[in-house]
Amino acid sequence: MARFILGGDIYIHQSRMNFKPGFNGKEFYWHSDFETWHVEDGMPRMRALSCSILLTDNDINNGPLMLVPGSHRHYITCVGETPENHYQHSLRKQEYGVPDHNSLSELVSRYGIDTATGPAGSVVFFDCNTMHGSNSNITPAPRSNLFFVYNQVGNSLQDPYCHQAPRPGFIADRGPVAPLAIAPSGISEPLPSIHIPAPDHPAAPDSQGHDPHNNYAYSRENRRYLHEPLRGSHGKYSARRSRRQ
């Protein structure tokens, strides 16, 4: 399914377990995964997808994942400089790479908030740029989810878009990457590439470099994204916590 959605060969960029024990499971503030993967890992484009496998029941009370549907259409530039060894703290508490209140308020006003609830064994897929977070868990019931992040092979990591050294390989696979062998049992041939029709865009890139085959455009020269601006936000895809700001 991840390969179909991303439209090509994929590999696992990151995997982890999110464990939120009963009574004292901590909240995790709103953020876009891509913002961190782009800035700190050097992921060039939004060609990644998160898969959350629910290991326990996730209900409305035990701190389920909250998502802003439609927020993946907007890249929110975050302010502040990346601290040294930020990864040692960011997976427990996100303090850098979080949206400003105006941008978050506009996103929620425009799209609302959904909660990903379901029984153990359910699977949730969401875009790498979707704004998401979760509340604390003060109920007796633990909430545990297993995460796999799939990235398109052609979107493998480059140098980080900030002045820090790359994060360790156990946080983000820097390669060399090989496509996952995804084929029905008994078939050794790789599956053919999948073409997903592009959304409605101009027939050719415009003067600002918009690519008709993507819902965002990327310029290698200034490492900046162009996208639909949001009121109260910076309106362009640029690396936060970077000396290039």
Automatic annotation (TrEMBL):
Cofactor(s) required for function per UniProt: Fe(2+)
Residue ranges, compositional bias (Basic residues): 233-245
Entry keyword Oxidoreductase: yes
Pfam families reported in the protein's UniProt record: PhyH
Region (Disordered): 191-245
GO molecular function: dioxygenase activity
Keywords: Dioxygenase, Oxidoreductase
The keyword Oxidoreductase belongs to this UniProt entry's keyword annotation: yes
Basic and acidic residues bias locations: 220-231
Protein's name in the database: Phytanoyl-CoA dioxygenase family protein
